[in-house]
């Protein structure tokens, strides 16, 4: 008896016991196995994280995987982290060598996360050419990159770039401010930006979530011109103190959530000020643009549990919620 003589029900059971790579190889042997493959994997790849080790795949097998499933994918995450953590003693190649050729199969993708180490220039060009429905893009790479071509993505609403070369010839924000000023809603940059980029960012009129690294006081003053920002995240705010955060909160009427990490000059005085400000706004009906309670999350700041317990913010939980977390994002205190 051969496999082809088995009924579909039995073949489905066989397929379900195979790993993903073997299933793809079988699917391309005949039209019947392809049909069984699609029955077994219906809707399985809409949200796909590629955790398979790269050393187990050939380029042709990777192409099989995305040719079979790429048009069904809506969210995709590809990372080298699994390879590096599991097989640090082996010489492995980055998954980036597989990505560029398969972008043509990902035309329906809405969200893409790439944590890769090589070949990112070619990959970004392919992304901008084929993934015109992309709305959410996250890129974490150590490669020197020029992200200017991302302006070609007409639906891009959320952008997260861990490393941005401010000293290069990248004109991404300048072009976004000119061509896509009403599209981008969320922006995170994991490296410090210069004032030139800030002047372009404030022209993004639909921006509601902004995350920046080590901003200066002048940078914050410029960001105040963005009256649409509801969520602000600041990491490594070394040069900022209570007064800077107080002023920003007082003048940014739509701000409803603040995330701060590595800012030792932020102390208990800020949440106390925030409570007083929110009480005043509520009494004068000025807080109609904020979402209450105002949310503050702090990691490695000067705000301590002991200082908060001495304040009167415990009685104002309908106005302010404060969460203290450690470096592993574990909650130390929630008010």
Write the layout of secondary structure elements.
Layout: H1 8-16, H2 20-27, H3 31-40, E1 47-50, H4 59-69, E2 75-79, H5 81-86, H6 96-102, E3 111-115, H7 120-130, E4 136-140, E5 158-161, H8 172-179, E6 186-189, H9 195-201, E7 209-213, H10 217-223, E8 231-235, H11 242-251, E9 257-263, H12 269-283, E10 294-301, H13 305-310, E11 320-325, E12 331-334
Parallel strand pairs: 1-2, 2-3, 3-4, 4-5, 5-6, 6-7, 7-8, 8-9, 9-10, 10-11
Antiparallel strand pairs: 11-12
Helix pairs in contact: 1-3, 2-3, 2-4, 4-6, 6-7, 9-10, 11-12
**Count of folded domains:** 3
Provide the low-confidence segments as ranges. Answer: 84-91
Shape: elongated
SSE sequence, one letter per element: HHHEHEHHEHEEHEHEHEHEHEHEE
Largest sheet: 12 strands, mixed
Q: Structural class, judged by helices and strands?
A: alpha/beta
Secondary structure: number of strands:
12
Proportion of residues in extended strands: 15-25%
Separation of the first and last Cα atoms: 68 Å
Radius of gyration over alpha carbons?
A: 24 Å
> What fraction, in percent, of the residue positions are helical?
25-40%
Strand order, largest beta sheet: 1-2-3-4-5-6-7-8-9-10-11-12
Number of helices: 13
| Average predicted local confidence, pLDDT | 86
